[in-house]
Specification:
The complex is a heterotrimer of chains A (393), B (288) and C (627). With 288 residues, chain B is mainly alpha-helical. Helices cover 67% and strands 0% of the residues of chain B. Chain B is elongated. In chain C, strand 4 (280-283) and strand 5 (288-290) form a beta hairpin. Chain C starts with 11 loop residues before the first helix and ends with a helix. Classes of the chains: A alpha+beta (393), B mainly alpha (288), C alpha+beta (627). Chains in contact: A-B, A-C, B-C.
Chain lengths: 393, 288, 627
């Protein structure tokens, strides 16, 4: 009995990455020799001690299970099921968890996958850290790599659109997703880690990771760190220094009313801070359903012609494109153009969706049109994704 | 979300305006003014008077340094809202230019940093003047070189070459080398430093990185020579192995049996853990 | 002041003093124009900031001298592509000293507004250097204070344009609306100025309706004018009735298109063609290729760039446009017939890997016919050959212009697009026409015969205005070139016929009234002593047809006429065959007419007969020198 197993609706090895949100998979018979009735197969997983763990579902909202039994039709039609990482047990390395398909006691097929999520940078293992910085160094490639484009997008040319505008958050989410995809083109096991700047992170700014700044601000790396070959705009190295060389004081306790500071003031500030933290812990699905700013007319950061920005809620789902494409797929009229990019949903579910940039007039640089707003997929985020981690890809 | 009982949220326009008034008022205590500046960034560009008030505080040499730095931070925060701040930008840059001669060194350095990142021609002129005539220097030479490196068109290469030959201090030489890493004509200088075993390790590593960008094929050859040379330091060998592992010509390195044999030996016998790890990574990638 | 050698040894102080001197000597204004060239030796080994200071000061000098035609292109270039506040402000100010505001300038001003709005700065245009240290008077109107901004100067220029800025009204209204909603970057003062300009333009429209009513004494109509300022601004602009249907175009002579086949200065470059054989390139894959190997055999489009260019409107946009050009070529089935190359100004730094990365990220397809190149040998001959508008500090570019060249199949430069943003369709149109023509000659549109060089004519490089932005007209290769006058060839044919039908006696006059009289020529008693004359005229006719045949590839006309001559002389007069003369005459007529028709076919290259109209010239050259 031969079967075909697709992860994320694709047989491509680059699709074998899942997150906490259920990823659509299919299984079907491709060789029914000797079969007289539809066979039942059992899906299970096998993982190393430090590897990731996955759970199976029959539908996105069904209860997760460690095993799933499916009946495969003899006519070769696909049976859908869903795979998601078991929360709290992400992979450490590529392919450290395997989906096993058994019929009875015999193993029919095995597919190694990875529960690939964005992790707290302070908790990365040495191997994960080394893979990440190697991918990033290759992304820069001594100043000749794609990083230059991302830098140009974010600096003067793109800044008016990206900063201080309502589209700030989705712009940067899409930007980072795009950057992450570029890193994954280099090493698919890499995900963009995040920095919890409200917690100590002593391992972050060391010579083995993001480098150590001297008094002058020039960052030093260890001899084995490939980031030592970083080049920006032709200039070797990185300069980074804190905004102030003074030790930061306690949070501001200034009171407009009494113009005094004190414990009472500090407490109220702390309360406000906690409220913000609670806000951040909000379930992502709730966050998505909040009122986003409506589409707002603004200016393109490249050519300054009128365009739109905002957060669209059109639930159209495209095929699971894993790498963004910047081809300008449609030009509607002389006065309007739209760039459509196939990407993976930046919210949490990780499946294919579309990023659209609508532009008020024919763009001069079709290849440079940046994503404006996101059309998220309609799959709801499971309620388990409400803990302190963001639980991205 | 619970609103604090006292009005420190700066959410409303009125509260921001009030905070700005407090921040710019010379009668208030320095600590109060610094705290007030923390939340007024959004108010600065509401109208021209508010901007002028903050710039006045910034330029007032009689104000405490902490207050002036707080005013500068507020302006920098305001500049993050690029569109709204744009109407303030010309005056902001002009005010910063007037502060390049400020007596306070930290403020001066910060202002020069902001202007250098804007690739301001006046700032470049003054920094170059300071490098050529040390009595007119606004910041230490290593800092001036670092700021000039933000713009490769700043005409800093001749003075950087002079500093490499006659450095006032090691940090200045290092920054000069870093700046020259963008000058294709300086590749021979980097080769010379890399070959010279009497040069400090940091300079040689910097030269290796620069050569890696300017002449990658030559760097690959030098990296190979360094690895095969028993008298070279472990640090430099580690850098060379890292360069070859991440950026090497895969076809050429895979066929280089002598190199692979040497790296194999290093993996087993090197005393430095960094060198051992690098050797392992190299072999993982290139071993047939 | 003693004459300074104008080279890199001149200090900035000496330069500013020289410019100040020239400002008061209008006869030396050509020197100022020359100083605006990027490749002028005075800019060698200068940093980019120093180059900006010097160029800005040279531009500002025209404020007193008046901006000559030759310098207009530099001003428009700065408005079109500039991102430095000082240079844009200087350009806008010097534009106001131009004698004839043209409506097409509004598009450039609007584009400059869009380019500079997030890069504005306080600049001082009254002393050398341009840096305003202390905030001064920044109002747009009273720019006599310590500082002004580029946006202020642009708004002043729009005001100066007067009625010529009408086409930019929608763009200005959109800008105003954006800013009012909070999405724009103009200050309150600038918004007020913009509103004033719009108001004055709108009141000009009211003035038009007043003019048409022809009732100036009507108080109700006069009350619609908000201020007398709008009337003042009218004096600067074209009289309303002078605006032609082609009002939104630039004067022909300042166009960015340069026809190298007719340009005398270009002949010098082409005379150094033998040196370019020494140029060796390396492409994005590290492969070596010589100039002749790549550029001979097919027409080519060549652009220049470098990867460290900090102005995204120049190199980055140029390479991105090349990618779009490739798509247009593919759509028109010209893939593989026209080659494309982008050559870096900075070959020492832009190694193969860098070139590939730069092209890849801009969507350029790179293959055997489309390459990104760096010159490894023969860099100087290449600079001279292309007359590149670039200068260097060490090996790094300090300033360059936008430049795209079209080479013919022999590798000779046929045309170039310089300074102002080029249109992909237009460039492709020229390259395709070159492909279709013989020996790489471009079918250049006729400039017309009125000799009015400063007239407002449509040409392939016109800029029309749409929504306040400059949009290039499509110059499709399929658009036929205007026909050259067939007067002379037709005259010669008619003369030869007239000689044949020259009346020998009064009876002939009667014969000419009758169709049958034509065939009875041989009956005339005086025809024998006219025979040699007739033979000579026939030979002259055949000779002229043969001469035209060589340049027209059309042989039918000559052979028909030759057959006709044979029939007349040999069969008709010699053997006295019936109808031989009649047929011979008809064939001669047919041959002459066919030859005239062949000269009118646009697909065929025509002999360049001298015309009365002048050719477009380079800035600074007189029309007589250009042709």
């Amino acid at each position: 009995m031969d079967i075909e197993l697709q992860i994320n609706n694709s047989a491509d090895w680059r699709a074998r990455y899942v997150t906490w949100a259920p990823s659509p998979c299919t299984i079907r018979l491709i060789d029914t020799t000797g079969l007289t009735q539809a066979p039942a197969v059992t899906l299970s997983s096998k993982s190393s001690d430090t590897g990731g763990s996955i759970l199976f579902r029959t539908s996105p909202t069904a209860s997760p299970a460690v095993e799933l039994t499916l009946t495969l039709p003899l006519n070769g039609s696909s049976v859908e099921f869903f795979v998601a990482g078991e929360f709290g047990k992400p992979s450490l390395a590529d392919g450290d968890v395997t989906i096993q398909v058994r019929s009875g006691t015999g193993l029919i097929a095995e597919v190694p996958i990875m529960v690939r999520i964005r992790k707290d940078a302070a908790t990365l293992s040495d191997e994960e850290r080394n893979r990440f910085i190697a991918a990033f160094a290759k992304f820069n490639n001594r100043g000749t790599g794609r990083f230059t484009d991302f830098r140009n997008m974010h600096t003067a040319a793109g800044s008016p659109e990206a900063h201080g505008q309502p589209g700030f958050l989705p712009w940067h989410r899409a930007y980072l997703l795009d950057l992450e995809r570029e890193l994954q083109n280099i090493d698919p096991s890499v995900a963009l880690p995040y920095w919890r700047f409200d917690r100590p992170a002593p391992g972050l700014f060391t010579r083995d990771f993001l480098g150590e700044s001297g008094g002058l601000g020039t960052v030093r790396f260890s001899s084995s760190n490939p980031l030592q070959f970083w080049v920006t705009d032709g200039v070797q190295g990185i300069v980074r220094r804190p905004l102030s060389t003074r030790k930061p004081k306690a949070p501001s306790t200034f009171c407009l009313k009494t113009k005094q500071s004190g414990w009472a003031m500090r407490l109220s500030i702390l309360r406000k801070w906690k409220a913000i933290r609670t806000d951040r812990r909000m379930c992502l699905s709730e966050a998505r359903s909040r009122a986003f700013p409506p589409l707002r007319k603004t200016r393109c950061f490249l050519c300054f012609m009128p365009t739109w920005t905002g957060y669209g809620l059109n639930g159209r789902l495209s095929s699971a494109g894993l790498t963004p494409s910047r081809e300008n797929r449609s030009i509607r009229t002389r006065r309007e153009a739209e760039t459509v990019s196939a990407i993976t949903c930046p919210i949490a579910c990780g499946r294919g969706t579309e990023l659209r940039h609508r532009h008020a007039h024919p763009p001069r640089r079709a290849a440079d049109l940046l994503i404006r707003f996101v059309q998220p997929c309609p799959v709801p985020v499971p309620p388990c994704v409400t803990a302190s981690t963001t639980g991205g890809k | 979300m619970t609103e604090p009982t006292t009005g420190g949220s700066m959410r409303s326009r009125e509260s921001r305006a009030a905070a700005l008034k407090t921040a710019t008022s010379p009668e208030e205590e320095a600590g109060t003014r610094v705290a007030a500046f923390a939340g007024v960034a959004r108010a600065i560009c509401d109208d021209k008077e508010k901007l002028e008030d903050v710039i006045k505080v910034l330029k007032d040499t009689r104000s405490p340094q902490a207050v002036r730095l707080a005013a500068l931070r507020a302006l920098q925060s305001a500049s993050f809202s690029v569109v709204k701040f744009n109407q303030c930008r010309p005056e902001y840059l002009a005010a910063l230019r007037s502060l390049v001669d400020d007596p306070d060194p930290e403020l001066r350095q910060r202002v020069l940093g902001i202007l250098a990142r804007e690739q301001d021609g006046y700032t470049q002129q003054r920094l170059l003047e300071g490098l050529r005539q040390p009595e007119k220097a606004l910041v230490p030479p290593e800092k001036a070189l670092q700021l000039l490196s933000y713009d490769i068109h700043a005409d800093a290469y001749p003075v950087a070459r002079e500093i490499v030959d006659k450095p006032p201090n090691p940090a200045a030489k290092r920054e000069a080398l870093r700046l020259l890493a963008a000058d294709a004509a300086s590749a021979p200088k980097f080769e010379e430093i890399l070959r010279d075993k009497n040069e400090p390790l940091e300079m040689r590593q910097l030269s290796a990185s620069a050569l890696h960008s300017l002449a990658p094929k030559k760097m690959q050859a030098y990296a190979r020579d360094i690895i095969l040379d028993d008298s070279e330091s472990d640090e430099l060998k580690t850098s060379s192995l890292t360069a070859l592992t991440n950026f090497g010509d895969e076809a050429a390195v895979s066929e280089d049996n002598a190199l692979q044999k040497t790296v194999d030996t290093l993996k087993d016998e090197a005393s430095s853990p960094g060198l051992k790890n690098s050797a392992e990574n190299f072999l993982k990638k290139y071993r047939k | 002041m003693p004459e300074l050698p104008l080279d890199s040894q001149v200090s900035e102080l000496q330069f500013s003093t020289l410019v100040d001197e020239v400002k008061s000597e209008p006869a030396r204004s050509a020197l100022l124009v020359d100083l605006l060239r990027e490749d002028h030796p005075i800019y060698e080994q200068r940093g980019a900031a120093a180059t900006i200071r010097m160029r800005g000061w040279a531009l500002l000098a025209f404020e007193r001298l008046g901006l000559p035609e030759a310098a207009l292109i530099f001003v428009l270039e700065e408005l079109d592509n500039g991102r430095d506040a000082y240079l844009v402000a200087a350009a806008a100010r010097s534009l106001r000293s131009y004698a004839r505001p043209a409506p097409a300038m509004a598009a450039f001003l609007m584009r400059a507004l869009a380019n500079i709005q997030f890069h504005d700065d306080l600049v001082c245009l009254d002393h050398y250097g341009g840096y305003t240290i202390f905030p001064g008077d920044t109002t747009a109107r009273g720019a006599t204070g310590a500082g002004t901004t580029a946006i202020n100067q642009l708004l002043l220029a729009l005001r100066w344009l007067g009625s010529g800025a009408r086409e930019a009204v929608p763009g200005m209204e959109a800008l105003l609306a954006d800013n009012v909603k909070g999405g724009g970057a103009l200050s309150q003062t600038q918004l007020r100025e913009l509103r004033d300009v719009l108001k004055s333009l709108k009141s000009l429209k009211s003035l038009e309706s007043l003019e048409s009513l022809k009732s100036p004494e009507s108080p109700a109509s006069l009350d619609s004018l908000d201020s007398l300022d709008s009337l003042d601004s009218l004096r600067c602009a074209e009289p309303l009735e002078a605006l032609s249907p082609h009002c939104c175009t630039l004067p022909v002579s300042i166009g960015s298109f340069r026809d190298w086949l007719t340009d005398i200065a270009s002949n010098h470059a082409r005379s150094s063609k033998q040196d370019i054989g020494s140029i060796v390139f390396e492409d994005q894959d590290g492969k070596s290729i010589k100039f002749d190997e790549f550029f001979r055999g097919q027409p080519s489009i060549v652009a220049f760039f470098y990867t460290r260019c900090t102005n995204p409107l120049k190199c980055s946009l140029t390479i991105t446009k090349l990618a779009r050009l490739q798509k247009l070529m593919a759509d028109r089935g010209l893939d593989g017939q026209i080659r494309m190359a982008a050559i870096t100004y900075d070959p020492q730094f832009d190694l193969a890997e860098r070139l590939r990365g730069y092209g890849d990220s801009r969507g350029v397809r790179m293959d055997a016919d489309n390459r990104l190149l760096r010159a490894v040998e023969g860099i100087e001959p290449m600079r001279k050959y292309f007359q590149l508008g670039v200068n260097f500090i060490q090996s790094l570019v300090n300033r360059h212009r936008v430049e795209v060249y079209i080479l013919d199949a022999t590798g000779s430069i046929a045309a170039s697009f310089e300074r102002i943003q080029w249109d992909e369709s237009e460039v492709l149109g020229h390259a395709a026409a070159l492909l279709a023509s013989d020996h790489g000659r471009i079918a250049v549109p006729d400039r017309g015969s009125d000799g009015n060089e400063s007239g407002f004519e449509k040409n392939s490089n016109t800029a029309t205005i749409s929504n306040g932005t400059a949009v290039r007209q499509d110059a499709s290769a399929s658009r036929p070139a205007r026909l050259k006058s067939p007067v002379l060839p037709a005259t010669l044919s008619i003369l030869s016929l007239a000689a044949a039908f020259f009346p020998k006696c009064p009876v002939c006059w009667a014969a000419y009234l009758s169709v049958f009289g034509i065939a009875g020529l041989e009956q005339l008693p005086y025809s024998p002593w006219l025979l040699p004359l007739f033979a000579c005229l026939m030979l002259i006719n055949l000779g002229s047809l043969r001469f035209q045949q060589r340049s027209q590839h059309g042989t039918a006309g000559f052979y028909l006429a030759a057959t006709g001559a044979f029939l007349i002389f040999v069969l008709g007069i010699g053997f006295e065959l019936v109808y031989a003369n009649a047929i011979g005459v008809m064939l001669t007529i047919a041959g002459s007419l066919l030859s005239v028709h062949a000269s009118e076919t646009p697909d065929r290259p025509r002999r360049r007969w001298p015309t009365i109209a002048s050719h477009p010239s380079r800035p600074g050259r007189s029309p007589t020198q250009a042709s």
